[in-house]
Amino acid sequence: xxxxTQDRGKGRWxxxxxxxxxxxxVALWVAAIAIAGPLAxxxxxxxxxxxxxxxxxxxxxxxxxKIQDALPGGESTDLVLVxxxxxxxxxxxxxxxxxxxxxxxxxxxxxxxxxxVPSKDGTTLMYPVSSTGPGQDxxxxxxxxxxxxxxxxxxxGLDAEVGGPGALATDAQKVYGSLGGPLLYTTVAVVAILLxxxxxxxxxxxxxxxxxxxxxxxxxxxxxGLNRGFDVTVTGQSSAVMTILVxxxxxxxxxxxxxxxxxxxxxxxxxxxxxxxxxxxxxPAVVASSATVAAGLLCLLAADLTSSRGMGxxxxxxxxxxxxxxxxxxxxxxxxxxxxxxWPLVPTYGSEPGRRRSLFAVMGGSAGRRPVAVLVSGGVLxxxxxxxVFNLPGDLKQEDSFTSKPDSVVAMETLADxxxxxxxxxxxxxxxxxxxxxxxxxxxxxxxxxxxERGRSGGGWTELSVVxxxxxxxAGERDxxxxxxxxxxGSHVGGPGAQQMDLEAASSRDLRIVVxxxxxxxxxxxxxxxxxxxxxxLLVVAVVAVWGAALGIGGLLFEPLLGLKGTDPGLPxxxxxxxxxxxxxxxxxxxxxxxxxxxxxxEPTAAALTALRTTGGVIASAGLxxxxxxxxxxxxxxxxxxxxxxxxxxxxxxxxxxxxxxxVTSASVALQxxxxxxxxxxxxxxxxxxxAPEPELLRAP
Length: 701
Prior knowledge:
Layout: H1 2-9, H2 15-40, H3 60-70, E1 77-84, H4 91-107, E2 117-118, E3 124-131, H5 138-151, E4 159-163, H6 165-177, H7 180-199, H8 206-230, H9 236-264, H10 271-298, H11 306-337, H12 359-369, H13 371-386, H14 407-418, E5 427-432, H15 436-445, E6 449-458, E7 461-468, H16 475-487, E8 492-494, H17 496-530, H18 534-557, H19 571-599, H20 604-631, H21 639-671
Helix pairs in contact: 2-8, 2-11, 5-6, 7-9, 7-20, 8-9, 8-11, 9-10, 9-11, 9-20, 10-11, 10-17, 10-19, 12-20, 12-21, 13-18, 13-21, 17-18, 17-19, 18-19, 18-21, 19-20, 19-21, 20-21
């Protein structure tokens, strides 16, 4: 007992305990995954990917969708069958279209018999089709759309497509359902390649990768529990981002821990002692940085947009699960594997860590010689790049939300060309039944309305289907929606076009509310960590500048290079939250080391350059991994994911190689001790205090 007490007093584990503890940690994780695995597999079943699922509950179009669910037959699935021949439809084409449409009507419970609507130029026939049979069941809706598509066939020059809101929703559901596998495999492959290059070991790279996979499974199970217990909205977008964060942030934490552990192995004979020292050394910085990221992400709970509000806790769960796995399971596995896991570059007890003049020492030297010039030049560059924001493409339309055109988008484009004075995407109005006749008359008299018909009634509401003269989601259709909302008191106006308007309005409101909350929460955490006001302000200003520059680069490249025809309304807010939270994450590692050097008596310039030299390599490695994982999203088939992945990947690279390396270091040199104002370090030079030799907080792997 006395020996054990003495060991604890020296910060060491008793020999018996260190032999058991790693195995106990691994056993606990095996048990946790055995429980979490089945729950993780159910996450895809609770995803909500309809456009209305992204909207706030108070939106007018959301109210329309809810009331429609209560009407006889429930929510309707609306399709448009499109037949087109460039030179004009032949009698045989019209006969085939009538026969196929009759087959659709006989095989399904439609709300009304399909009626042909010919185009003026004679090239196109469209048959609006609506059915309440599938209801709200995604599988039933998909089956209905697929059966209709199986019936509608072209050939010999006749093009036949199935479009409309129901077909668009089915295609979107199919895309979201297919994301999980390709996203996971691509992410794992990218991280594996980078880890092999960084570690130069045939075994070591596999350990953090396996741990990240375990963390991903745990996070999926936790999110499934949040959905079941607290009705947190889970979308395909939030699930994809969570996986990216688990692998990206988790690998970052692994890089920091493994780098420190490698150094400690040269100072301690036993791996468990080296790991204990590594956790004491870099653990606080890793925990603080992950807590900052989670706090920034949780600010999304203040968003009005349902999808953004759900993204906050889901992404935070991913970060925290990655932290938990990398600070418990990863150390246990590394201790059990011993020094041989680093083969062929095995750190030897008693050896001196290799030291060489690094690229970051050279870069820091240039920043230290002319700090003001470097700071001004970098600021001007970021400001110039930010001007590209004004070149961002307009709001993203539904037909532009796919990177490759599915059948539903082709149908919409055909209809837009063939029916320039008539929309193929009806506006849905829900009017109180007692005033339905008056509402129908007023809707028909509204400017921009081509036609209006009365539909189902139930629960005190009557459905009106209004066809606008303008194209779907055009400025003209928006004007028509506004006119209907202004003129039809007591009614609700919805449909795809109205949903897009509500989505943009909610995104604009959330940007005004959430951005200040994120800045304030991150700033307060940085003030508490760094015990300064100037340094936290510097880091916050830097990450905001990175966000603006990354969005600006997106504006310069989205349409000209990537062919993206619109900007997702949620992109500014989500990219801001992720870039600020993740950028500050790296800022903590750098400024924490600057502060430690200053407390040890180093002059401000020496403290800044030493911090860059010692942390630059591992921050660069971590930044590359995180940027590469988000870049995986640019290969996904949805425009919103491509745009988010591009902006965040570019922002992380700017932050890693420009802002952290040059601008923050230059500002630290230029401000000298004033960077720690009003803390004690800003007033008097710190007396050099003797400290026990210890490895640097962070070093390149």
